[in-house]
Amino acid sequence: MTALTLSTSSAATVRADAVVVGVAKGAKGVVVAPGAEAVDKAFGGKLAGVLETLGASGAEGEVTKLPAADGLKTPVVLAVGLGDAPAKGDGYAHEALRRAAGSAARALAGSKKAGFALPVEDAEAAAAVGEGALLGAYAFTAFRSNGAGNGKNGKKNDAKSAPLAEVAILGGKPRDKEFKAATERAQALAAEINRARDLINTPSNALDPKSFAAEAQAAAKEFGLKVEVLDEKALKKGGYGGLLGVGQGSEAPPRLVRIAHTHPKADKTLALVGKGITYDSGGISLKPAGHNETMKCDMSGAAAVFAAVVTAARLGLEVNVTGWLALAENMPSGSATRPGDVLTMYSGKTVEVLNTDAEGRLVLADALTRASEEEPDAIVDVATLTGAMVLALGHRHFGIMANDDAFRTSIHEIAEEVGEQSWPMPMPEHLRKGMDSPVADIANMGERMGGGLVAGLFLKEFIGEGIPWAHLDIAGPAFHEGSPWGYTPKGGTGSAVRTLVRLAERTAAGDLG
User: Fold this and answer.
1) How far is CA 327 from its chain centroid?
2) CB within 10 Å: which end of the chain, N or C, has fewer?
3) What is the C-alpha separation between 303 and 200, in angstroms, rounded?
């Protein structure tokens, strides 16, 4: 992974392959952001004018490279847009710094070291720059042979596309406790988000429920976590009808993983539940052509939960965080659950399966009931649950539903604080009637319109009484199919990890919301 350091060097004296400076859109043109003063001086105070001549505008994520002027120790200056310049007296938003650093890091692939001279007024701003750069430098290369497809120059070309090796935050204070702690947190968080991305990007023939569980066991050993894996025999003995029903059509049997960070001083427990469908064909209700190709990402919720629990352990948070990974592969076969079948869930409730492609709510229901038995102070589930949520909110926002308005508001505020776009959604009680079944306690489908809300109402049925609960439907932002932007890569994004980690930090501080 890309190294992150705090440097006392100035933008003029840092020895690196490039120095990164920020520029913004001002009322009269390009404005050079704080941190770039030494570079601007080397250009005779005309850096903004030179950049405008090259077509730069300061727009968010815009990257402009130019040869360094005399007096600078780096051969290249990279100017990255921060968007609109803030009002006088205001600083740059942390999310603007994250996105700019991510764009710059990606543009510097193949470089050994870059000095980031972006505005770092305080430790949190430095952490935002570090976090964005580490996430922007991410690349998934596990399945690329060395030089494949690049002919005689394959190895050389691979080196040019390798992630930026080191990010040095200029203006940082390596001996300052706050700066040091903030950047160490950024390193741990980015490492675990990238772990989640790796899992999401891994093809389904290399990641099934059993191998995903093995990843959790390995991490538990490395970071001192408690882990328990229920295999198909244990699931059958325990009556986990949702997990078994979804997984019975696959040769790769389901798993339920409990992975927990505990702290001796903790007096609060947060339960996180993740949907982990390692491949979703839709089952007998087969997905149409064009909707199968990215379904390796249907375990993004479990990946986010896994990453959040490990991050809590790495940061030593004074809160107990228990992750539940509901893992299954949804396949059509002679043994698969059929539309019209009735499953008896772990809770004892019966569910008529009207659509086998509404499988995520079935595995989550079992895990939510099991998590409720431990009576945590709150439960949050994360899932790529419904296409309806993508239709409602697009590809960059996740929806938030909850059985407690204050808790939903708190989650929304946390998500916005850490730079994850989200929106609170309702759970209208009138939609519950659509899931009434003539043969079972409830059906797994209801009204088509408002399908994302219907899914939330279904999950609510499996939450223990009196436990605050929130549901994050990350179907939109979990997997990015377009061109990279900011610190968001093509493929798995690690959506919701930052929100879950900040929630754990707030819970540790006594502010559960």
Assistant:
1) 18
2) N
3) 7
Q: Above 90 in pLDDT, residue 95?
A: yes
Q: How far apart are CA 77 and CA 366, in angstroms?
A: 54
Please give the structure tokens belonging to residue 106. Answer: 């990606």
Pairing of the two strands 113-117 and 398-402: unpaired
Instruction: Identify the band that residue 158 occupies on the pLDDT scale cut at 50, 70 and 90.
Output: low
Binding residues: 275, 280, 298, 357, 359
d(CA 136, CA 485): 9
Q: What is the pLDDT of residues 98-129, one digit of tens each?
A: 999 999 999 999 999 999 999 999 999 999 99
Asked if residues 340 and 353 have their Cβ atoms less than 8 Å apart, the reply is yes
Which of 212, 287, 311, 286 has its CA nearest to residue 252? 212
Query: Which pLDDT tens digit goes with each residue over 283-299?
Result: 999 999 888 999 999 99
Looking at residue 208, the DSSP 8-state letter turns out to be: -
> Which residue type sits at 438?
P
First to last CA, the chain: 34
Identity at 410, one-letter amino acid code: S
Cβ atoms of 445 and 354 closer than 8 Å: yes
Pairing state of beta strands 491-492 and 469-473?
A: unpaired
**Alpha-carbon span 119 to 103, nearest angstrom:** 15
Three-state DSSP at 323 gives strand
- What's residue 173's pLDDT? 87
Q: What integer best gives the mean pLDDT of the chain? A: 95
* Active-site amino acid positions: 287, 361
Strand order in the sheet with 226-230: 226-230, 255-261, 320-330, 269-280, 378-383, 469-473, 398-402, 422-424
H or E element in which residue 364 lies: helix 360-373
Side-chain-facing half-sphere of 350: CA atoms under 13 Å: 10
Contact 230, 256 (CB under 8 A): yes
Angle between helices 177-201 and 497-508 (to 10 degrees): 140
Structure tokens that stand for 51 in this block: 């950049």
Rounded CA Rg of the chain: 24
| Binding site as annotated, residues for Mn(2+) | 275, 280, 298, 357, 359
Which range is least confidently modeled, 88-102, 149-163, 480-494? 149-163
**Looking at 71-154, which runs of residues are DSSP E strands?**
76-84, 113-117
